Amino acid sequence: MQQILWAEIIIKGIAGLGLLIVPLAALAIAGLARPVTGLWPRLVGALSLAIAASIWIGQEYPASRGSVGPAALVPINLLSAAVLIAALVMGTAAPTRRGKVLVAASAILLIVLAFLEIAHA
Fold first, then answer.
1. pTM: predicted TM-score of the whole model, two decimal places
2. Which of 1, 8, 12, 88 is the 20 to 30 A CA-CA neighbour of 71?
3. Three-state DSSP class for 92?
4. pLDDT digits (tens, 9 = 90+) for 63-105
């Protein structure tokens, strides 16, 4: 279970830092649509980084209260994957093929992580 949580920390931390520091450039590199301002990508980056930090606190300090654990990560990952899949189905996921592939791969990764967390909880 520890490896799954560390994978969550790394994935959410890297994605969160990228979106927080250079939101518009990160979206352009990923092939996703660029918004007019970087507010919403930065907000998503901050939330992803906060989730990663909370998981890390739970890993480093097991007696701590209020950290995000596997039971909370399952609905976070499943709902995030559902939103990505809905965007793919509706055709609004990304304007480029690279972006659509990235969105699909992200949805698959989130579903796999959720099922692994369910299996090991």
1. 0.90
2. 88
3. coil
4. 888 888 888 999 999 999 999 999 999 999 999 999 999 999 9
Is 113:7 a contact under the CB 8 Å cutoff? Answer: yes
Neighbours of 61 (CB within 10 A): 10
Count of domains in the chain?
A: 1
CB atoms within 10 A of CB 80: 18
Cα–Cα distance measured from residue 51 to residue 66, given in angstroms and rounded to the nearest whole number: 11
CA distance 89 to 74: 22
Residue 91's domain spans which residues?
A: 2-120
